[in-house]
């Protein structure tokens, strides 16, 4: 199981991390899915996200009304219509990890059908990414799965021609 980050999405993540280095932010995120024959995830790809709340030093939350304002526009995108909507939020300076609150939220959001993906990002600290997803198992029990950071695939760095020439 792995998470794929696209070059444009990674650039957007880095922008928000640099723009708000001392505050947490959060919002919905859209993830496409590749699954195995049984329907269990093999790979999620973060397709897009939209920060809705700029929180304080250690917390953030947003309301359904805020989501409703952007959802209609976002779902005009045919790619996002096919995605699972989940969460993205920052931990800015303390590193990316699933806190007790994050794990609780992940489990509470476990859908009856499908998956609820969640990505935590940080500009500093031990880890820069933490990813997991939740779901209800065949018995209706909330379950979650955390992905090891080494299973998060970053895009290959593409240099401008001038950079490539210097590197040669």
Your description of this structure?
It is a single chain. The chain has 168 residues and is an alpha/beta fold. The protein is built from five helices and nine strands, in the order E-H-E-E-E-H-H-E-H-E-E-E-E-H. Strands 1, 2, 3, 4, 5, 6, 7, 8 and 9 form a nine-stranded mixed beta sheet that branches. The termini are far apart. The mean pLDDT is 90.
Shape call? globular
> Secondary-structure element sequence?
EHEEEHHEHEEEEH
Overall mean pLDDT stands at 90
Question: Uncertain runs with pLDDT below 50, 5 residues or more?
Answer: none
Ends: how far apart?
A: 35 Å
Proportion of beta-strand residues:
25-35%
Compute the number of strand runs: 9
Tell me the radius of gyration. 16 Å
What structural category do the secondary elements indicate? alpha/beta
The helix content, as a percent range, equals 25-40%
Number of helices: 5
**Sheet bearing the most strands, described?**
9 strands, mixed
Task: Describe the structure concisely.
With 168 residues, this protein is of the alpha/beta class. The protein has helices at residues 7-19, 64-74, 78-81, 100-108, 161-167, and strands at 2-5, 25-35, 41-49, 53-54, 84-92, 116-122, 129-136, 142-147, 152-153.
Throw out a few tags for this protein.
168 residues; globular; 5 helices; nine-stranded mixed sheet; alpha/beta
